[in-house]
Specification:
This protein is of the alpha/beta class. Helices cover 32% and strands 22% of the residues. The strands form 6 sheets. A 7-stranded mixed beta sheet has the order 15-16-14-13-19-20-21. It has a 6-stranded mixed beta sheet with strand order 3-2-1-5-12-11, with helices on both faces. Strands 4-7 form a two-stranded antiparallel ribbon. Strand 2 and strand 3 (26-33) form a beta hairpin. It is globular and about 65 Å long. The mean pLDDT is 94.
């Protein structure tokens, strides 16, 4: 029996392989960034071949750094950027178009067309999601309608669709030589096609989108053996036994298994997930209803989710597009050169606004500017934007669930930023808690895979692994908090109605 679990974390900006031991500690990591392709305003793509090549390479990096072989690995778990859509030819193994990334907004006309009959909540009772460019369903439609020959190949049964978990799994298990075409319930719940009650593809919705069912992967639980790595792989014959979409994986890695537990991940975007147990709660406040996890034959657990499109990527934008900082971790020092935001508020609606507004017509705005404002204030306003957006999502969760959140567990890259986490606690007026292992996304995928093969005995084993690293207590005066929130909400309204027929 191997002593370790390997997790593949196929994320928005990079692919990683992380090896964990039984205590949930990291043994080694391999990581490679992939190109972010922006063909037009609002379009975001990745090269699926680059993602798969990088995935193979990072597996090799992680194994060699730890001086391990496949014999030391008991199972593999996969976690992934969820709504990013890949469509490929099952006979050649090649993608027919680049992966269309979750942030991409090109499918707005398809959303409008589908919403003409029943509005953006047309399918929400079945799938828990509004019609939006964010989800993978509209991206498949775009490929079928815009890539030459795609529709004919799809109708002939030659094309496969998957989010990047399915793409990695299919290739890892052999690709054209017997590759396994499945996804798990968490990823399936982000397509606009899966019925939350039955956990199956909804034929009526597929017909409305005109997507052939033959393209879709089989839906499985988040924790079971899907297949084994192909003989050509460094991991040959190791079982692939866990799949969780990245935000669900982070929730699992935070050991937030029970009703009422929540976590917030600070990544490219921010994603708050609130576990509602075995009950489906339909949000009245702009949240998504989604699948939290399903372990083998056990009942499915549902969740409410607040998705925020642009948080960490705003810091990257300040670095790459404006050159305000040389590296992402410099933003804290720059923000600390000033005592407050100087009256500036930054609403990063680069891909429209996600929860709780769902305004695809919004675009980014930096407001409240005077001659006094300098780059320190702008850096601080960018960090505060992350915290303000999180506050709005948590207000929605509290309203939907009727159970106010008493503390917030946080994870993801930006949680290394102490200034941000203190402001987050201040603006929420609840404590913010960071765990020892901040790589909770990969850890969650490892947990799902390990549970399936008996590496861990059950959820109590995983709860015992969770340890608090640091806690931030709120210290802001209530009247100051109210003033800042009022100004933030005013700033948000300035981003609305920007996009019309002749503005992308």
């Amino acid at each position: 029996m191997g002593n370790y679990i390997l997790a593949i974390d196929q994320g928005t900006t990079s692919s990683r392989a992380i090896i964990f031991d039984k205590s949930g500690s990291i043994i080694s990591t391999g990581q490679l960034e992939h190109e972010q392709i922006f063909p037009k305003a609002g379009w975001v793509e990745h090269d699926p071949k680059e993602i798969w090549d990088n995935t193979r390479e990072v597996i090799g990096q992680a194994l060699s750094k730890a001086n391990l072989t496949r014999h030391d690995i008991e199972a593999v778990g996969i976690t992934n950027q969820r709504e990013t859509a890949v469509v490929w030819d099952k006979t050649t193994g090649k993608a027919v178009y680049n992966a269309i990334v979750w942030q991409d907004t090109r499918t707005q006309s398809i959303v409008d067309r589908l919403a003409a009959d029943g509005g953006i909540e047309r399918f929400k009772p079945q799938v828990g999601l509004p019609l939006a460019t964010y989800f993978s369903g509209t991206k498949i439609v775009w490929i079928l309608e815009n890539v030459e020959g795609a529709r004919e190949k799809a109708e002939a049964g030659d094309l496969l669709f998957g989010t990047t978990d399915s793409w990695v799994l299919w290739n890892l298990t052999g690709g054209t030589d017997g590759g396994v075409h499945v996804t798990d319930v968490t990823n399936a719940s982000r397509t606009l096609f899966m019925d939350l009650e039955t956990l199956q593809w909804d034929d009526d919705i597929l017909a409305a989108f005109d997507v052939p069912r033959s393209m879709l992967p089989e839906i499985k639980s988040s924790s079971e053996v899907y297949g084994t790595a192909h003989t050509s792989s460094l991991l040959r014959e190791v079982p692939i036994a866990g799949i969780l979409g990245d935000q669900q994986a982070a929730t699992f890695g935070q050991a937030a298994f029970d009703t009422g537990e929540a976590k917030n991940t600070y990544g490219t975007g921010n994603f708050l997930i609130f576990n509602t147990g075995e009950e489906i709660i339909h949000s009245k406040n702009g949240l998504l209803t989604t699948v939290g996890y399903k372990l083998g034959d056990a009942p499915v657990h549902y969740a409410l989710e607040g998705s925020i499109a642009v948080t960490g990527s705003l810091v990257q934008w300040l670095r790459d597009n404006l050159g305000l900082i040389g590296s992402a971790d410099e933003i804290e020092a720059l923000a600390k050169t000033v005592d407050d935001n100087g009256g500036a508020y930054f609403v990063p609606a680069f891909s429209g606004l996600f929860a709780p507004y769902w305004r695809s017509d919004a675009r980014g705005a930096l407001v409240g500017l005077t001659r006094y404002v300098n780059k320190g204030h702008i850096a601080r306003a960018a960090l505060e934007a992350i915290a303000f957006q999180t506050r709005e999502v948590i207000d929605a969760v509290n309203a939907d669930s009727g159970v106010p959140l008493t503390e917030l567990k946080v994870d993801g890259g930006a949680t290394a930023n102490n200034l941000l986490l203190q402001f987050q606690a201040d603006i929420l007026d609840v404590p913010v808690v960071r765990p020892v292992v901040a790589e909770t996304t990969a850890l969650g995928a490892a947990y799902a895979a390990g549970l399936a093969v008996g590496f861990w005995d059950g959820l109590d084993d995983l709860r015992a692994n969770w340890q608090e690293d640091q806690r931030w207590e709120p210290s802001m005066d209530a009247s100051e908090r109210d003033r800042q929130l009022r100004n933030w909400k005013k700033a948000v309204t300035k981003t609305f109605d920007w996009v019309d027929e002749d503005v992308n």
